[in-house]
Design goal:
Chain lengths: 189, 504
């Protein structure tokens, strides 16, 4: 039994980190929520993707920080919000983007999980950094949520910001220091 | 034979794992325990009403039920059942996780249980009086939690007997809990006027003319006071709502409502709260050093009459970690009244026993409050941790447990209340004595320092035998524990302590 759980643990770690450094197609072309064709991983700037849904409470609580990161690194990164629930209606999408002041941020409704599969995202709100076709970071935004139901009073580790800084200055990209807490992204049937 | 049994057992397990389906096994658990909040118009962030809703969240549901984060219920199983206990059994949790492992089969649609008939709107029926916050309160998109109090005039024509208060949150994603009290002193109105934005920070005064009336937390069910018990609500009382808001990520406006349920029948007995330690710990010397992982305060009180208890509650702020209350009956039997092993200040709640609990005269009530002021406590509002003392602000600390009880038939209520009042004053006196004791210790250090400087004439930091006064020479060798023929400050202090201890 002990061996079995160890094996499971090792396999899950491999799947988590196995995708770091994996390559994505830089010419992947999709449409954003307004119908405009975009290439999420192309260009010279690093792409930062945040996976979310309109009704994940953990992801929603993170929106103000998501907006701050988008505005702090404006012009230096290619920032995108990816809605992962294919059942999301246009109305829910519009309401969410308006209520949470997200209209300025490039957003994608990933109906076919093109981006979920390309990056290996599993949770909302998970962050992924892709640079020159390589996944350099995947994991939590910060340590606001220590565990389910345990938000911190004070955020002390800004994992995503640290990773963005490293990518921008060409340094080794630090990996998340803790589990990404949030809502699991269900696999497409 | 043994082998066959094992094989049989495994086969049984295998079949069991295969057979877990939504309609037959999982839906009953979800409908009974989750859907009352997870449906449109209630506090849950998404609905859990059919196969699609539940299978989409299956992995999350398995995780938060295993972690016992959901359904929200923080009391461990104790000696008595609580009304509205939302916790799942181990078997229910296993059923959910097995179903998720088996890739969440839907099962036979004909086995789907009918959805319980949930009451929409007021859970306790139509209230006798409905009041609302007088103006909406804006809650920003993010930042720290907000504590804010609001005064709601009731304009009652005469004194009323109050059976229950039901709270209907308005901005459901941000309203986390609300504590009710009444105020006849006008204090709440004064404080409200003084601040420009809606509401005020908190009530400053306690005591006569101000009374607690229970509270509400997200996910909680309203309760009427049992049997004939009721609160007396004075004619000129204002209702005070002490609200706790969690920002949700988008700006909100809250204007919550409250329903009051009255009775014309006056109760046969009054009831009271035995709070241990009293005054939310104000008199118990709560002074938690920075970094301290388990700072504990204990208090106990022996009941002078037979009582019947009907509810128990706990209160602490961010740093509270473990809160528990037990009773030792005169025959030695131990009862666990409330045990919250992993306190979460977000879920202040009153736990109502399903039935009255008889506690005979001579029962010893004991409470323990443990705080965690280390940096490993994610709830610590200070990074790095700092010294925290008792106080009313959420970053100060409080801590106590309260048992609500009435006197048993034929018993005198005043015997209980007057002994409890004595307990309050004794708690204060005891803490004052301990403080004074500490000050005397501090003075001892000062006095020893002065003596040492005076006596160490050559100023080398040591007292030689020729510097020592004659009364000291007699015990000089015994005090010189490191045998260097001199006394340093440590040796002098140790000798003095030994002397003091012998004199006690």
């Amino acid at each position: 039994m002990g061996n079995l759980s160890l094996t499971v643990l090792i396999i899950s770690w491999l799947t988590v980190f196995g995708l770091i450094g994996q390559t994505v197609k830089t010419d992947l072309a999709i449409k954003d929520v307004s119908g405009k064709p975009i290439k999420p991983f192309s260009g010279t700037k690093p792409s930062v993707l945040i996976f979310t849904t309109y009704d994940c409470p953990v992801a929603n609580k993170m929106v103000p920080e998501i907006r701050r990161i988008a505005s702090n690194y404006q012009g230096r990164i290619n920032f995108q919000l990816v809605y992962t629930d294919p059942d999301t209606s246009q109305n829910e999408l519009i309401t969410h983007r308006k209520d949470f002041s997200l209209n300025e941020i490039t957003s994608i409704l990933d109906t076919k999980h093109n981006l979920v599969k390309a990056t290996g995202a599993e949770i909302t709100p998970e962050a992924v950094i892709v640079n020159k076709g390589k996944v350099l970071y995947r994991g939590r935004i910060n340590n606001f949520y220590e565990d389910f139901g345990k938000p911190r009073r004070v955020v002390t580790q800004h994992d995503l910001r640290d990773a963005i800084e490293a990518v921008l200055s060409g340094k080794k990209v630090p990996q998340p220091r803790g589990e990404c807490i949030g809502c699991y992204i269900p696999k497409l049937k | 034979m043994k082998k066959i049994l094992i094989v049989l057992a495994f086969t049984a397990l295998h079949i069991a794992a295969k057979e877990v389906t939504f309609t037959e096994h999982v839906a009953p658990i979800i409908f009974q325990n989750c859907t009352s909040c997870h449906r449109p118009g209630e506090s849950g962030p998404f609905k859990l009403m059919d196969y699609n809703d539940v299978s989409k969240r299956g992995k999350l549901i398995a995780r938060v039920t295993e972690d016992r984060v959901m359904p929200p219920w923080h009391a461990q199983k104790g000696s008595f059942k609580f009304h509205g206990d939302r916790s799942l059994s181990d078997a229910q949790i296993t059923t959910i996780s097995k179903w998720v492992e088996a890739d969440m089969p839907e099962g036979d649609p004909s086995k789907l249980p009918t959805m319980p008939r949930f009451v929409t709107g007021w859970q306790l029926g139509k209230p006798d009086l409905v009041v609302k916050m007088t103006e909406p309160f804006p809650v920003p998109a993010d930042g720290r939690d907000i504590y804010r109090s609001f005064v709601v005039p009731l304009d009652l024509p005469k004194d009323k007997w109050l059976k229950a208060i039901e709270f209907r949150p308005d901005a459901r994603t941000v309203v986390h809990h609300c504590l009710f009290s009444y105020d006849t002193t006008g204090e709440a109105r004064r404080l409200d006027k003084r601040e420009r934005s809606p509401g005020f920070r908190r009530m400053r005064r306690q005591g006569s003319g101000i009374g607690q009336l229970g509270g509400w937390a997200a996910g909680g069910q309203p309760n009427k006071l049992p049997e004939d018990l009721a609160w007396r609500l004075p004619r000129n009382a204002d209702l005070v709502l002490a609200m706790h808001y969690h920002p949700s990520g988008k700006p909100e406006k809250d204007q919550s409502s409250v329903g009051l349920y009255f009775t014309d029948q006056p109760p046969k007995t009054a009831f009271t709260g035995v709070q241990l330690p009293p005054v939310f710990g104000a008199l118990s010397g709560v002074d938690i050093p920075a970094g301290e992982k388990a700072f504990a305060i204990r208090d106990s009180f022996t009941l002078p009459i037979n009582v019947e208890a009907f509810a128990v509650s706990a209160h602490a702020h961010y740093l509270g970690k473990k809160l528990s209350m037990s009773a030792t009956l005169p025959n030695g039997k131990q009862l666990n009244l409330l045990n919250i092993p992993d306190w979460d200040f977000s879920w202040q709640e009153q736990y109502h026993f399903e039935e009255f609990i008889s506690l005979p005269k001579g029962t010893k009530l004991e409470s323990t409050v443990v705080w965690d002021n280390s940096s490993s406590n994610p709830n610590n509002p200070s990074v790095p941790p700092k010294r925290v003392r008792w106080g009313p602000e959420s970053e100060d600390e409080m801590g106590s447990l309260t048992l609500l009880c009435r006197p048993a038939e034929g018993e005198k209520f005043s015997t209980l209340t007057s002994l409890y009042r004595k307990h309050i004053s004794e708690t204060g006196v005891r803490t004052a004595r301990q403080r004074a004791g500490r000050i005397r210790e501090d003075n001892l250090d000062d006095r020893l320092n002065a003596f040492f400087k005076r006596t160490d004439r050559n100023g080398n930091g040591k007292i030689e035998i020729n510097e020592a006064p004659s009364w000291m020479k007699a015990s000089f060798d015994r005090s010189d524990t490191n045998r260097d023929k001199t006394l340093d400050f440590g040796e002098l202090k140790a000798a003095t302590e030994r002397l003091r201890n012998r004199n006690r």
